[in-house]
Amino acid sequence: MARVHFASADIGRTRIALPGPLAEAQLSLWTAQQAGEAALFDRWRARTRRALATGDLPALVRGLALPGKGMVDLFTLVGTVPRTVDAIDTLLRGPQRLRAELALYSPQRQALLPKWVFGAADGDGLAARRLAAALDAVYQATVAPHWPRIHAVLQAERAAAASVMITGGVDAMLGSLHPAIRWEPPVLEVPYRTWVNSDNIHLAGRGLVVTPSVFCRQPLLYAPEHGELMLIYPVVRDVLAAAEIFGTSMRDEAVAHLLGRTRAVVLEATEAGATTGQIARSLGISPASASQHAAVLREAGLVSSRRHGKTVCHSLTALGKALLDGTS
Question: Which ranges of the chain have pLDDT less than 50?
C-alpha cells in the first residue's frame, strides 16, 4: 500500500488530465497479454493479439510490458501528450530522457528489451525510426480503432471528477475516484507497490496529476525525477461500459440498434447461461432492471428462463444464438 502525503500546497496543485493515446496504448499491452476480465476485454483481445504478433511488435511488447516484470515507465515522458505522433516525437527528440529512464532498470529487466530501443536512446537515427514505427504500430493495433470512443469515455470521466471537485472540493474528488483508493486527509492510500524503499511518498509541494484510463486495470503511480506525481486509475468497471467502447463490428452495431445497447449486452451475457443477479452484476445495473430486460428478450423468443428455487437462470434460444452469430 502506497501512502501519498499531501502538503497544503499540493491540494491547490492537484489537477485532472487525460492520458494521451500512446500512454493508453502502452497500458493496453498488459491487458492484451493477460486473460482476466474476459467479459470486458476478450473481444478486443481476439483482434489485438493477432495484430501484435507481427514484425518488431512481439519483442517490443515483451520488453515494455511483460506481466509480472513491471512496465517500462513512458508515462512520465509522454503520458498526457494528446497526439501519438507528438508523443513519439517527444520521446525521441530528447533521447537522453529515455536513456535515463532505461538506466533505472536492472540488467535482467533491460535484457527483455530489443537492442534497437537502446540504440534509439543513444541517438541512433535508424534505431529511433524503427522504435517510432513500432510504437505507432502498437497504437494502431491496440487503441486506434477505438480511440474516438475511448476519448469520449475519458472526457466524460474527467468532467464528472471535475464536477465533484467544483461542488465538494479536492477532498470529495480524491475520495470518489475508485473503490480501492482511500482518502484520509492529508494522506491518499493507493493499493500499489512503490518503486522506493518506503511505502510513504511525500509530495512536498510538487502536486498530483489524476488521470483516468480505460486500459489501466488497477490504480498506478508514476513519478518523474522532478515534477508532479501521476495517479492513473481505471474507469471501465462493467460489461456495458466495455461494450460501448469495443462493440464496434457491423453485426454488434446492428444488434444494438435492433434491441438497444443494454438489451444487446444482456443478450450476450446469457450466451453461456446467467442468473438475473449475475447479469445485473456484470452490467452494473439493478436486478430489477436485468429481470425486465430479460423478460423483453424472452417475449421476443431470444432468451429462455428457468427458475431454480429463488434463482432464475437465463440462456439463449436458437433464435437468440442465430442473432448473435449473425446467421438469422
Answer: 248, 250
